[in-house]
Amino acid sequence: MAVKLLPRSWYMAWHRGVDAAVAKALSMAIGSLSASAAPLADRRYWMMGAVSGAVGGFFGGPALLLEIPLTTVLMLRAIADIARQEGEDVESPEGQLACLEVFALGGRSSEDDAADTGYYGLRLALELPLSSAARHIARRGLDGRSAPALVNLVGHVSERFGVALSERAAAKLIPVVGALGGALINNAFIQHFQDTARSHFTIRRLERKYSRSLIEAEYKKLKRRPGKASVRYTALAA
Predict the structure, then answer these.
(1) Quick one: 131 exposed, middle or buried, by C-beta within 10 A (0-12, 13-18, 19+)?
(2) pTM of the shown model
(3) Of the candidates 25, 127, 205, 221, which lies 20 to 30 Å from 186 by C-alpha distance?
């Protein structure tokens, strides 16, 4: 929401910066693909993304600014890997554009796709309450009055399990919460875009085989008859 309130010139500059960063990340991701190498299993990408997110969430600040580009490369590498499995020429401009399209297709609306502000906004927003909670504990301890949400959460959890937390112990928990949050967010986004990429590049493969007009017509039939979509899609893909 804060990004949306920026002056239009700043907002457009943000978009240009994100676009340039994603294009660079795609170039690095495709460059790391070996023509002879077997595709990585999905869970390998999930694990690498979770570790990357945990490190960024734990240390925060400058570490987060280094981790987000790394995770972007991982997401695009996972997308490009799926594209190649479906017969896409990922070194061609058309194939690379199709990889970037997955970011736009992955969001449920124009406001939540990862190439816009969804992923990046979520990760940066996570840093704010973490740092705010740490500062509150440092200044006031575990005082619940006007405390940030994370301080209240730590206090409630400790009470629930009958654990007496000192200010020092509570402050140490804040980075752990950040690490867990970063790992979960990265894992969710990578899985989400892998699923989107698999659908996107399966359709493109079928279009190359049967023609775009035929696949588009079949796709519209699936949307009109969702109850039989899985059976029809399986038959079509075969």
Answers:
(1) middle
(2) 0.71
(3) 205
Question: Which residue has 């009470």 as its token pair?
Answer: 159
Distance of CA 141 to the CA centre of its chain: 34
CA 113 to chain centre: 9
Contacts 24+ apart (CB under 8 A), 83-87: 83/197, 83/201, 84/33, 84/39, 85/39, 85/201, 86/198, 86/201, 86/202, 86/204, 86/205, 87/205, 87/208
pLDDT interval class at 88 (50, 70, 90): very high
Query: Tens of pLDDT along 167-223?
Result: 777 777 778 888 888 898 899 889 988 998 998 999 999 999 999 899 888 888 876
**Residue 145: CB partners within 8 Å, gap ≥ 6?**
none
- Tokens standing for 98? 């199709």
| Sign of the torsion formed by the C-alpha atoms of 102, 108, 114 and 117 | positive
User: To the nearest 10°, the Cα dihedral for 74, 237, 232, 42?
Assistant: -20
